[in-house]
Amino acid sequence: MPFLIETFDKPNHQALRLEVRQAHLEYLDANVNLLLACGAKLSDDGETASGGIYLVHLNSREEAERFIEADPFHQAALFAEVKIVRWRQAYLNQKNTL
């Protein structure tokens, strides 16, 4: 079942984000089979990330929690807040999936 995980970086932690980014990307590559979509939330000018959105296919909220807790960004204490909600996929790649 799909889950949406939204993360919110702590203020003024861009340096930490950049420091841990490569490990984060390697973690995502290692778990690509779980990702429906994933990416950073950016400032309006597209220059500064302030968190991310993960759409993941996992069997339970507990698995979603374990997934985000294993992310190097989470382990580096980058996030001020993490929200996890069940998500119903209706459209993907411009196609109705219902």
UniProtKB/TrEMBL annotation:
<dbReference type="InterPro" id="IPR005545">
    <property type="entry name" value="YCII"/>
</dbReference>
<dbReference type="InterPro" id="IPR051807">
    <property type="entry name" value="Sec-metab_biosynth-assoc"/>
</dbReference>
<comment type="similarity">
    <text>Belongs to the YciI family.</text>
</comment>
<dbReference type="Pfam" id="PF03795">
    <property type="entry name" value="YCII"/>
</dbReference>
<protein>
    <recommendedName>
        <fullName>YCII-related domain-containing protein</fullName>
    </recommendedName>
</protein>
<dbReference type="InterPro" id="IPR011008">
    <property type="entry name" value="Dimeric_a/b-barrel"/>
</dbReference>
<feature type="domain" description="YCII-related">
    <location>
        <begin position="1"/>
        <end position="88"/>
    </location>
</feature>
